[in-house]
Amino acid sequence: MTGEDRELELERDHVAGLYARVDALRETAVARSATEDQEAAAVWRAEVARLDSVEQGLCFGRLDLDDGRRVYIGRLGLFRDDDGEPLLVDWRVPAARAFYTATAAAPQGVRRRRRITTRGRTVVALDDELLTADGAGDDALVGDAALLAAVTAERTGRMHDVVTTLQAEQDRIIRHETGGVLVVEGGPGTGKTAVALHRVAYLLYTRPHLRTRGVLVVGPSRLFLGYIGQVLPGLGEHSVVTATLAELRPGTEVSRSDPPETAAGKGRAVMAGRLADAVRARVRTPDDAIDVEFEQQTLRLDPATCARAAAEARRTRLPHNQARLLFQRHVVEALARRLVEDLEAIVLTDTGEAIDGGSPDGRLGEADLRALAAAGVVVDDHDGPRTMLDETARAGLLQSLLADPVVQATLDALWPPLTPEQVVADLLGERAGGWSAADVPLLDEAAALLGQDTAVFGHVVVDEAQELSEMDWRMLMRRCPTRSMTIVGDLAQTGSPAGAGSWDDVLRPHLRDRRHLVRLSVNYRTPAEIMAATTDLVTGVTPPRSVRSTGEPPWRLGTTRAELPAVVAELAAAHTTGRLAIITPGTLTEALSPTAHPDLTGRVVVLTPAQAKGLEFDSVLIADPAAILEAPLGHHDLYVAMTRATRHLGIVHPGPVPAELLRVPPRARTAPARDR
Q: Which helix H or strand E contains 303, and what residues bound it?
């Protein structure tokens, strides 16, 4: 048996022991989930799910330290049952950090780093690095063989965790100790999304209180959230809520799209002030006194009373619908006082006739008491002037006034109850046609002004954050009052006219300087040949450095507009290796694919540039780049489309090639449509 074979057997035995320990823990958790009370059972069911989630890739690394110890690294921590000795170290603990950050220049006490590859529960390969002083720099790729194998592997249509191949700059961000807002900026292929999701897993491990406060991950589309949906469960985390911005308002259905300029206008922060003004304007003070009929009596409500009641209600700074209740209370109390004054001003004779106007202070005098006694009205025996109604009677009168439909109609006319839909529809003048995505933050703003409850979270992750408008940010900040957030994006990929031009513009109004910006600089996904072809699309930014080259440059192919669908279909049919994304303007998507809901696990999928954000494919075919460039931020959209590929990029353009793509070498139309 060779030395390599012996090492494989050694690791197979150790990993088998780890799985045996997991099986024992699972068996205990299953038993307890069936016998404990309901609350405890839920905890044990969550433990069963956690143990099930690490079935694949339970142990993926080993550190051999200078002091002779061996530390195995995996997806969770396991300990020996008898003495509590660690069998497997969770990748999130400090003892595991050197697995991601140790280099030959800075070995951090590590003599050898071993990467363990498993298939199912069996160890199938080992990859060792001896961290000797060989002159490698601090920015050397850690475990480059495993990393390059991962980034060049065929895509599956779903993102997987990268816990086995995290690089030093990624690990630093994942473990960043800021307690506030961390902004992670990085170009295509730098792993922004993976870093954000692994940071969630790290925070849930190091800050257990977040499990009760909740973590929210916000993505640009349900398609994107489905794409990343396996990452956190694969890291043992099942309790995170994922949502698009529109889904943060349950019950609001987005059924139409706004023109770009309209969406941009709705996204500006000034809309918050306009909505507040619109709500405030719905409260009115009458110019003249109002006669209110109540139980065959006429009560007079004067403008001064209404103005005082409105001022008192507004002074509390409560939302509209809550302040409305105080306004009603103030008005009804005034009406009740006048009704009581009218009642107490009447003094009766022994025969029940009114004989005077009562005492000057409106309370019952001696003559009043004698008359009331003669009329059979019992009044408590105490000194001084008396009132006809005690506190219980007064409270009953207030409730009667509040419940009276005529009184209520009068109050509603002065301070009406409102819904967010009413407020936004009245402001925009759009009462029909459904809601757009740009309307959702307006509805949310209106809901906040009216006092509707909002679910809040202990930590919020925002992906593709550059696309959010100023109003979107207001909606998100309401969901995270503690301002504990991880924000990831790339300003060079902003496609929405309402999106960010700078992080300072959109974040300073909410955070001032309470945020920390970090950058990812290495592109692990996009080959250098493809990145070179994007040089003329985005200016003023430093693109990330690609770590690999495929030797296959992108290509472009000219055709006519009439032939475009047929040419694209021919090229797609010839594609046989990996997954292909056809990225094209929305005007062409229906012609190329009638499917309303793209399937990322299919061999070929048709997407718009907006839908393709954050995704990656083995090959990308861009159809009609000139039409993509016509969008308000079309250069950014085309940049996004070109940088989705891990291997091959082709471009089909009807008519002349756009000037921005002249660097891309042409391909002859007569050439066979071979797989690219």
A: helix 303-315
